[in-house]
């Protein structure tokens, strides 16, 4: 069975310590002023008297099943891994158009000020490869974030979704079907916005996709020609050597 990584959030235990944000920033060496995750705050309603409380809501890339960022990418640089469900960015294929940044209704992406390509949460790929949890999950003192494969019925994340009520932060008019789940009583606040594709998206998709495919095809053809030349050159050299030995 394919894996489906997801984040389950219990905002009721979030204390706004921002350890998740700090650990993520250090782990990935993010530029000043930019973040891969965040904590939103809802102002207390003091009309509730002694029941007044502050509400903090952790967030980040939702690794959606219907990711608008993938649909908006004209070069195929942004894609969803079939094996894990993680939305990834191939920065070598990225043309830096910024369509995906605009198309994400959760504002989970930013354009790196130096590299000029988009960046976002990738569930700490290097840590996952070593069998570790994402940095934000590992450092949360109250365990407000729970990460795991929800296709694995034995995982903590899957168990929480089975035993508790939860909500997703859905979008209009196109439902992204996000893979960040908020447990009951931690309902979403004033986000996200509506799904909105850049005006140039359709034109860029029509132009860039064919050009990119042509470029890949030409590269493959060039590699094949070079390979054939090397084989031919090797055969000719071998023939010359044999003639020298006969002489």
Automatic annotation (TrEMBL):
The keyword 4Fe-4S applies. This is 4Fe-4S ferredoxin iron-sulfur binding domain protein. Residues 5-34, 52-83, 85-114 form the 4Fe-4S ferredoxin-type domain. SUPFAM superfamilies: 4Fe-4S ferredoxins (SSF54862). It comes from the Bacteria. Keywords: 4Fe-4S, Iron, Iron-sulfur, Metal-binding. It comes from Desulfonatronospira thiodismutans ASO3-1. Pfam families: Fer4_11, Fer4_4. One of its GO terms (molecular function) is 4 iron, 4 sulfur cluster binding. Coiled coil: none annotated.
